[in-house]
Design brief:
By secondary structure, this protein is α+β, with helices and mostly antiparallel strands. It has a single domain (3-121), classed as Roll (Nuclear Transport Factor 2, Chain: A), CATH 3.10.450.50. It is built from 3 helices and 6 strands. Strands 2-1-6-5-4-3 form a 6-stranded mixed β-sheet. β4 and β5 (95-106) form a beta hairpin. α1 runs antiparallel to α2 (23-29). The relative contact order is 0.21.
């Protein structure tokens, strides 16, 4: 499997976990030390992987609500054998996200180590 294919596989695990509300899949995609960062007005908010997974586990999944998927990988940029960046669209309607994901290849596998995102409510 090429690095590009392995990166796409990790991203698909993330997107499936998000849509299904499957915390195990999210934990398989996100490194244990990873964080999610977003702007809340003029404040930076940082959520740990554990806190995010707890929130996911305690909300209805888009699958359980029969919501359509809006997944689309917009860009994959692998800048070295161990670093990559992915930009994608996803949604939990009525919230639509643009995710900027930084990945590192550690011990032979790709992990999402940082997620920065923007959200639009429609």
């Amino acid at each position: 499997m090429t690095d590009h294919d392995a990166i796409k596989k990790v991203i698909q695990i993330y997107l499936d976990g998000l849509y299904e509300g499957d915390v195990g899949k999210l934990q398989a995609a996100f490194h244990p030390t990873s964080a999610l960062t977003f702007a809340d007005g003029d404040q930076i908010k940082i959520t740990t992987r554990e806190d995010w997974c707890h929130a996911v586990a305690h909300r209805p999944s888009p699958l359980s609500l029969d919501l359509p998927r809006h997944d689309e990988i917009l860009m994959i940029d692998q800048s070295s054998p161990v670093t990559a960046f992915v930009k994608l669209k996803c949604a939990i309607p009525p919230r639509f996200f643009i995710d900027y994901l930084n990945l590192l290849k550690l011990e032979g596998r790709w992990w999402i180590v940082q997620k920065i995102f923007a959200v639009e409510v429609r």
